[in-house]
Design goal:
It is built from 18 helices and 15 strands. By secondary structure, it is α/β, with parallel strands linked by helices. A hairpin with a 6-residue loop joins strand 13 and strand 14. It binds 2-acetamido-2-deoxy-beta-D-glucopyranose (NAG) (10 copies). This is Amidase domain-containing protein.
Length: 544
Amino acid sequence: MLAILLKTWVASVVLFSSTNALPSSYTGLPSLLDATAEELALGLENNHFSSVDLVNAYTKRILEVNDTLHVVTEINPDAWKIASELDEERAAGNSRGPLHGLPVLLKNNIATDDLMNNTDGSYALLGAKVPRDATVVAKLRKAGAIILGKANLSQWTNFRSSNSSNGWSSHGGQVYGAYYPGQDPWGSSSGSSVASSLGLAVATLGTETDGSIILPSHQNNVVGIKPTVGLTSRAQVIPVSEHLDTIGPIARTVKDAAYILQAMAGTDQYDNYTSAIPNNGTLPDYVAACTLDALKGKRIGVPRNYIGARTETTAPILDAFESALQILTDAGATIVDNTNYTAYDQFITSGAEIAIVGTDFKANLASYLSSLTVNPNNLTTLADIRAFTQSFPLDEYPDRDTATWDLVLSLNLTTSSPGYWAAHEEAQFLGGPGGILGALESYNLDAVVTPSYISAGISAIIGAPVISVPLGAYPEDTTVRTNPRGDLNLTAPNVPFGISFSAGLWSEVDLIGFAYAFEQRTKVREMVKPVVKPSTELWDVGRK
Ligand SMILES: *[C@@H]1O[C@H](CO)[C@@H](O)[C@H](O)[C@H]1NC(C)=O
Ligand SMILES: *[C@@H]1O[C@H](CO)[C@@H](O)[C@H](O)[C@H]1NC(C)=O
Ligand SMILES: *[C@@H]1O[C@H](CO)[C@@H](O)[C@H](O)[C@H]1NC(C)=O
Ligand SMILES: *[C@@H]1O[C@H](CO)[C@@H](O)[C@H](O)[C@H]1NC(C)=O
Ligand SMILES: *[C@@H]1O[C@H](CO)[C@@H](O)[C@H](O)[C@H]1NC(C)=O
Ligand SMILES: *[C@@H]1O[C@H](CO)[C@@H](O)[C@H](O)[C@H]1NC(C)=O
Ligand SMILES: *[C@@H]1O[C@H](CO)[C@@H](O)[C@H](O)[C@H]1NC(C)=O
Ligand SMILES: *[C@@H]1O[C@H](CO)[C@@H](O)[C@H](O)[C@H]1NC(C)=O
Ligand SMILES: *[C@@H]1O[C@H](CO)[C@@H](O)[C@H](O)[C@H]1NC(C)=O
Ligand SMILES: CC(=O)N[C@H]1CO[C@H](CO)[C@@H](O)[C@@H]1O
């Protein structure tokens, strides 16, 4: 359906100029399924509605889909009080900036020092307390964002079991995508992606070790930015690996994601990886990077050997991808084909990533647990968490096994193990000279472009950024296929897919521009419609 639509429709597309002027059709009350941060900020500034109205509307929307999609695990009991304070600040003429009074949701591994729990989807951590907000949360609050609640996720960010399902956690239930009955939401930022897609907040935060922002964004018709490791602090976020983990925005538009990234990124005394941010920590202007001509004169590579084979399930995506290459060309870019990754064959069989992540997880998890000011079950090590999980009925062990933890514990690696630095060096080579960095340099590229289903891995092992933007959706005649566990519909008609731009470390400002220039020429998100969606709008909750 869309793969074909995209081809024919691009010729007639009308481009909107990016100004802050209200469109002539603006009634003051944008529909929340697609409302942008700028539209909501304008409505607040013009007193068409308040932040309390926004909190009322978004929480009603969350509860409307609670029983069907299990997207949000907790609503912040303080959200109304915070909204009301921010409304007063605004009325007194003090705006904190573009996010003032806008509600956001957090993935349930990003901690807050308030009444909400941070569980990674496990009862093991229910009731635990942290010494302070995660730094990304503190930065968002300072920018005026309202923390509305916690989004469900794949339990332990999908770093537990070989037989679980994307978006399932014992504490939050099974998240479903909204575009087909029983849709696999992908993960592990499942609830964050579905929530952004359905307009349950202005945007959400996700986390990624390898694919956890990009893949669910791709599968749920939203934009995901996976920042360079170190651009966003991981302090007080339940970790997998300090070498790969990063926190990023998931939003309905590239510009909304840019606004959130601008506010959450930056140096932090509690995460020394942030000291690597260039220019002594001064951030580029990610929002200003959103220009229609951002692709003009740029060289964009296509690493065909990384993209892989055409199969029945990849065919619709690859067709849409070929059309997208034409759109990039029309936008002024030069497409350089076959910018292959020279060490790709070694990459796909390499054990370097699990060696690094497995080493980090044991140490980084223990470090997070030791930071807790209240630890109700006294769990201090991975072995403790595993014992809890295996004996706690709602964790569905042994059906949902603990294979990942079993492996990590049996490897028994530390940073002083003989293979550790070798694995680190190997990863740097496979993603670097043998991977994306090598292709960027050899072909003098500004970025590479790939379907999003494949984009995460090569960038993950070197901590490099990726952005995914909606590209299309499966056509109506698609055969329904389930996930390996057999309890979710993974491929089905109307299930969305995305396209990704990737480049070297700290290249977010370029990638955001490329993604914006593509998004504005295609507006795919608006063409793919969810089959389940909440109906509450601002006009249903009253207005000032
Ligand atoms: C969400 O739905 C469940 C039932 O599936 C219900 O027990 C729970 O109270 C609901 N949550 C809220 C916040 O209403
Ligand atoms: C956090 O968990 C505790 C313990 O189950 C519960 O009493 C509390 O209501 C939860 N907080 C929120 C905001 O749901
Ligand atoms: C998957 O889709 C089929 C229809 O194709 C439907 O019968 C089934 O209930 C769906 N699965 C789930 C988990 O809802
Ligand atoms: C960063 O902090 C970690 C743990 O606090 C420490 O082990 C590491 O040496 C530090 N790295 C740098 C570059 O300061
Ligand atoms: C870098 O930033 C720090 C803190 O913001 C400041 O104290 C320092 O002077 C800056 N260094 C340079 C070289 O600008
Ligand atoms: C790049 O990879 C593709 C797909 O594997 C292959 O067909 C092509 O020949 C390769 N091109 C170069 C220049 O290596
Ligand atoms: C945790 O440890 C504390 C102090 O040793 C003890 O009082 C408490 O009963 C323990 N809680 C659990 C659930 O084991
Ligand atoms: C995986 O889960 C499925 C669905 O519950 C179950 O049928 C199967 O036995 C499980 N496999 C293993 C190896 O536990
Ligand atoms: C793990 O390795 C350490 C030494 O590095 C050793 O003391 C310990 O017994 C090992 N544990 C297991 C379960 O093999
Ligand atoms: C806030 C909320 O709706 N939480 C629900 C999430 O899903 C689980 C499992 O279905 C429910 O028990 C929670 O009440």
